[in-house]
Design goal:
The complex is a heterodimer. Chain A is mainly α. Chain A has two domains: about 70 residues, no CATH class; about 240 residues, MetI-like fold, CATH 1.10.3720. Chain A has 15 helices and no strands. The longest helix of chain A has about 40 residues. In chain B, about 25% of the residues lie in helices and about 35% in strands. Chain B has a six-stranded mixed beta sheet with strand order 6-7-8-3-9-10, with helices on both faces. Chain B has a six-stranded antiparallel beta sheet with strand order 13-12-11-14-20-21. In chain B, strands 15-19-16-17-18 form a five-stranded antiparallel beta sheet, with no helix packed on it. The radius of gyration of chain B is 25 Å and the shape is elongated. Classes of the chains: A mainly alpha, B alpha+beta. Chains A and B meet through α11 and α12 of A and β6 and α2 of B.
Chain lengths: ~325, ~375
């Protein structure tokens, strides 16, 4: 009886594997079928990703403008826009501002603060750490426009920072974002983006088995030595991944500084990031071709940075 | 130098899991001391408290008569080998072993000399340039031992270091560990749930169960004179046979009796049992399989019939049905008996154990 039942199962299995239905499906997938299934996605990617990039490269080589005759009838002018770009003081300034902004607010500010917070989150017996984590997290999830307004308000001459300063007897005549535009957006961006690094590092730290910490403790490592010789090397890859992501994001940050400083980037263009410069050129100066050229240069530089990170990755994790 | 003492140590994990309960132990300098017990008995917690990885809820810990209860692990001058070996995955074998010395800022050439010395001792000189993931389990285990030994610590703590090895390697490492420990004259505290390891390696054994130390003594002492039912059942392989028996006293002639069992006792022994037992009609008789021998019908004091025969080559384990119990007898010869045949067994009164079922303690 039992044997008969088993035979039945084997029989059915053979039917399925040798029978027409599955074989036909499989050959359908192996041939043109698979491609057909990809078509909808490819069409969407083509329209919304590939075409704009190609269009952007094309536009950057014309004299197109947002308004006026050349908005409609533009001509191909080759690489002229790129030459104009590198002769533009504002563009070179925005390069400098963007690099400084990324290094200070992301690589130094967000990454170090995020790592410190992640380490504190793992410590036992620290009160209020959940509260701190929650606040850090809120900064990350509230809409960027809201965050931007909040920072304008906080750094206004009648805002919270001035109130605190005047409590200590320091009189502020102007708004902070007016006198220190660059510093304000650096701090605002640290405030906003730290949560990501904190979460990433928390996950990386969780990945280190507890007995590794304990082995180091027994081997005689002080807390600092444990961090330096054991924890840091083991999370170095996560740090690199963090660097890659926050570099990409920070170079692309627009809304928060725009809300605080406007497209000019504050007094003396001190806070005019690359993204603000592009917006300024395209929308305020109607020079859409130059803006396109600037965004292409930005793309190449960010790509080069990412490749450098990936290249350095092979020097990490040799074990 | 390296003696360890635990005084009234209790560890409660919140909310109220009592991991170890009022443990008192003294480990002498240079001794190979074993903490033996089943999983969850608190042996690893005890070791971690000695290491300083856990803080006792109550009680004090002394190393070399110095109170180290509040000191972190790094200030205790101990070394530990973890069950998982806990090698640093990002360091080569050389750096793994050198790590404890590097932390103490020992000079480079001195580190080099000592790493090579200990690597040679453990026969891992050829592996120094590899990462842990490139090593086999046995090799990783040696590296972990080397890392623990390189510093010449006061006390060497080992948490089931052999349990992740295959059977052959385990037997081999057992002997080697013991040799190393004796050679270096280092105090070792070794946690295991394997009674064979405990018996073969330890100078003294502490048997733990449910967070309490039940018995401390030399291996043969724990084996020959188990003080509780638990210790008797935990040590020995195959384990001790237990049978419910009653003490009969017919005019000063004492005997332990049950169906198929009738063991006459010397008068003094009978009196001791009578005096100490809470109920003489309900006792537990313990007999080790190796103490049962085949005998003639007249000489026998246990009789039954063969239930199963397990030939193991060098010995034969006879499963015998005595009353409602199946007991095991270990014979050093091949047997001509077959299943179902009557068998007569004899046990010397010197090798029987009697326990009180209400207290689970040995009566003598």
């Amino acid at each position: 009886m039992a044997q008969g039942k088993n035979e039945g199962i084997f029989q059915a299995h053979e039917d399925l594997s040798s029978g027409g239905m599955i074989d036909k499906l499989a050959s359908f997938f192996e041939g043109r079928g698979a491609f057909l299934f990809l078509v909808p996605a490819l069409v969407l990617i083509g329209i919304f990703v590939i075409f704009p990039v190609v269009w952007d490269v094309y536009i950057s080589m014309t004299n197109a403008s947002l308004v006026g005759p050349s908005a409609k009838h533009y001509i191909f002018i080759g690489t002229q826009n790129y030459f104009r770009l590198f002769q533009d003081f504002l563009f070179l300034n925005s390069l400098k501002v963007s690099f400084a902004f990324t290094v200070l607010s992301a690589l130094i500010g967000q990454a170090i603060l995020g790592l410190a917070l992640a380490l504190v989150m793992r410590m036992e017996g620290i009160k209020g750490k959940i509260l701190v984590a929650t606040v850090v997290f809120i900064a990350w999830v509230i809409p960027e426009v809201v965050a931007g307004y909040a920072w304008s308000a906080v750094t206004d001459k009648q805002g919270l920072v001035s109130a605190i300063l005047s409590f200590f007897g320091v009189k502020t005549e102007y708004s902070l974002y007016f006198t220190h535009p660059f510093e304000v957006i650096v701090v605002a961006n640290i405030w906003r983006g730290t949560a990501f690094s904190m979460i990433l590092f928390t996950a990386a730290l969780e990945g280190i088995p507890k007995y590794i910490y304990e082995a180091a403790e027994v081997d005689g490592a002080t807390p600092w030595q444990r961090f330096k010789y054991v924890v840091f090397p083991l999370i170095s890859q996560a740090i690199l991944v963090d660097f890659i992501l926050i570099t990409i994001w920070t170079f692309g940050v627009f809304t928060l500084p725009y809300m605080i400083l406007g497209p000019g980037g504050g007094i003396g263009n001190a806070g005019q990031l690359w993204t603000l410069y592009i917006y300024f050129k395209a929308i305020n100066n109607f020079d859409i071709a130059l803006a396109a050229a600037a965004s292409n240069v930005m793309f190449v530089i960010v790509l080069a940075l990412i490749l450098a990170y990936l290249w350095s990755m092979k020097y990490f994790r040799r074990w | 130098m390296g003696s360890v003492e635990l005084k009234n140590v209790t560890k409660i994990f919140p909310p109220k899991t009592v991991a170890i309960n009022n443990v008192n132990l003294k480990v002498h300098d240079g001794e190979f001391f074993i903490l033996l017990g089943p999983s969850g008995c608190g042996k690893t917690t005890t070791l971690r408290i000695i290491a300083g990885l856990e803080k006792p809820t109550k009680g004090r810990v002394y190393i070399d008569n110095e109170d180290v209860t509040d000191l972190p692990p790094r200030k205790r001058d101990i070394a530990m080998v973890f069950q998982t070996w806990a090698l640093y995955p990002h360091m080569k074998v050389y750096d793994n072993i050198a790590f404890p010395l590097k932390l103490r800022k020992v000079a480079k050439d001195e580190i080099d000399r000592r790493v090579k010395e200990v690597a040679k001792m453990l026969q891992i000189e050829t592996l120094l340039d590899r990462y842990p993931r490139q090593l086999s389990g046995g090799q990783q285990q040696r590296v972990a031992l080397a890392r623990a030994l390189v510093r010449k610590p006061k006390v060497w703590l080992l948490d089931e270091p052999l349990s992740n090895l295959d059977a052959i390697l385990r037997v081999q490492m057992r002997a080697e560990l013991k040799r190393l420990q004796k050679e270096l004259k280092i105090t070792a505290i070794y946690v295991t749930h394997d009674q064979v390891e405990a018996m073969s390696m330890g100078d003294r054994v502490a048997v733990l169960n449910a967070g309490r130390v039940l018995q401390v003594g030399a291996p043969n002492e724990v084996y020959n004179k188990p003080n509780t039912l638990f210790v008797a059942s935990f040590i020995g392989s195959p384990p001790m046979n237990f049978m419910r028996v009653a003490l009969k006293n017919e005019g000063g002639n004492y005997a332990l009796v049950a169906e198929g069992v009738s063991i006459p006792l010397p008068t003094e022994l009978g009196k001791i049992i009578e005096e100490k037992a809470s109920d003489v009609n309900d006792l537990i008789l313990g007999v080790r399989p190796e103490h049962l021998e085949l005998s003639t019908a007249e000489d026998s004091n246990i009789r039954g019939e063969v239930y199963v025969i397990e030939p193991l080559g060098s010995e034969t384990i006879l499963n015998i049905k005595v009353g409602d119990n199946i007991i095991k007898a270990r014979l050093l010869k091949e047997t001509t008996l077959s299943i179902g045949s009557k068998v007569f067994l004899k046990v010397s009164t010197n090798s029987i154990h009697v326990f009180d079922p209400s207290t689970e303690r040995a009566l003598f």
